[in-house]
Amino acid sequence: MELNHELIRSLLLFVESNDSLLGVSDDQLRDFVKKQNVSYEQLTYVIRRLEEKDLINAYIQTGSNIVVDMSINSLTFDGHAYLDNIRDPEVWKKTKSVTSKLASVSMDIAVKVASNVVIKMLGLD
């Protein structure tokens, strides 16, 4: 399955906007999926990858080879740092412009490109 960077950004913004200390529930994630017009499986894939990169703290319960419950407890410090770099729509637009020159880029590269875009926009390069 392809890693959807647009979905990653939307999900991180969604998790951050949640005011509950309990995090984002499965029901909220199912509503998010409908609004984003993606499948629950695509979202599950993204959540697993974000947890592997230590950008979120998530809970995924499976049974009979399907996800039966999923929630996101919080963003991690690194998750907040990445989101801070891509939050601004202009930064995100420039990041996508740079990364679109290739067929695909890794999450590590996307993080570095976003950081470099911010540095250039601040005139610190």
Protein traits:
125 residues; Arc Repressor Mutant, subunit A; 2 domains; 6 helices; 2 strands; globular
Q: What does this protein structure show overall?
A:
This protein has helices at residues 5-17, 26-36, 40-52, 77-86, 89-99, 107-121; strands spanning 56-63, 66-75. The protein is an alpha+beta fold. The protein has 2 domains: 5-76, Orthogonal Bundle (Arc Repressor Mutant, subunit A), CATH 1.10.10; 82-121, no CATH class. The chain has a two-stranded antiparallel ribbon. Helix 1 packs across helix 4 and helix 5 crosses helix 6. The chain is globular and about 50 Å long. The mean pLDDT is 93.
| Total count of helical runs of at least 4 residues | 6
Task: Based on Cα principal axes, name the global outline.
Answer: globular
Q: Which strand order do you get reading across the main beta sheet?
A: 1-2
Report the uncertain regions. Answer: none
CATH class of the largest domain: Mainly Alpha
Fraction in beta strands? 5-15%
Based on DSSP secondary structure assignment, what is the total number of beta strands? 2
Helix and strand element order: HHHEEHHH
Average of the residue pLDDT scores: 93
The whole-angstrom Rg is 15 Å
- The helical percent reads 55-70%
Instruction: Supply the number of structural domains.
Output: 2
